[in-house]
Amino acid sequence: MPHSVSEAVRLLEQYDGHARVVGGGTDLLLDIQRGRTPAVEAMVDTSRIDGLDQVTREGNHIVIGCAVTHTQIVKSETIIRSGTCLVESCGVIGGPQVRNVATLAGNIAHAMPAGDGSIGLLALGGEIEIADNNGQQWIPLQKAFLGPGKSVIDHHRALLTRLRFIPTGMGEGSAFTRIMRPQGVALPMISMAARLGLDDNNNITEVRISLGPAGPVPYLAETAMAFLTGAPAEPDQFKAAAEAVLESVSLRTSKHRATREYRGEMIRTHLPMVLATAAERARSRQASAGGDGK
Predict the structure, then answer these.
(1) DSSP string, 146-176
(2) I need a surface site. Which of 39, 75, 119, 282 has the fewest CB within 10 A?
(3) What pLDDT sits at residue 188?
(4) How confident is the model at residue 186 (pLDDT cuts 50, 70, 90)?
(5) Strand partners, 212
(6) What pTM was computed for the model?
(7) Which residues contact 164 (CB under 8 A, 6 or more apart)?
């Protein structure tokens, strides 16, 4: 079990493609057990790497170590105030036992298009830090995904060490919601998050909207974002933004979750409410996470 990033990278190199990085293990261990991922000679556990089990402030960013669990995020006063949609998205992942061991870094490294934590961090404009034998580099979160379960991170030779985002400030707010079947813990039919900033005249100065599953990777709704920028933060504009999403997004029918048409209706119904909540938080300059994240 490595105690530094450099030690973890050396171990991965030592096993030459026959080891895997593991954090909480809630995805990887199940995938190996079910035969979706081949067994490996070794697992490089990042949970004890010095300093990577903390949420910190570094310059203009809130930084989340790769060993930080969803429970830690949900309870972080810093993230509740300045990254509310991330708290709300991490608060619906699994049950309490899963959130106590599962990590946001693992959620993102698994690269599923409906990863709730990924949707929340994407709306915040998040970045991830990747470490390998060439050093460490930050990249925008949206560039990390290549397809369902496919990431730019080489899990045999590199590790996701940290995540970061610029906290919401005065006149900014964020919000998240998830639509799922009510029977127990289930995968989302559709999840969505938004971050926006307002000027003194209630006009939107900046906005980010993310959704999933809405294609092979978490979806950044750039058409709707462009439509809203400069517009007044009003219900009619939010409804029009949802229609702009529906014109550009790629939805599909899943026999285990929902039809394409139903997902579209959920976007039409709930995205305006997510935007309205983010706007209200921006106006009130107060944030209190909803759902299990409260």
Answers:
(1) EETTEESS-TTT-EEEEEEEPPP-TTEEEEE
(2) 39
(3) 87
(4) low
(5) 191
(6) 0.92
(7) 58, 61, 62, 63, 64, 126, 127, 129, 138
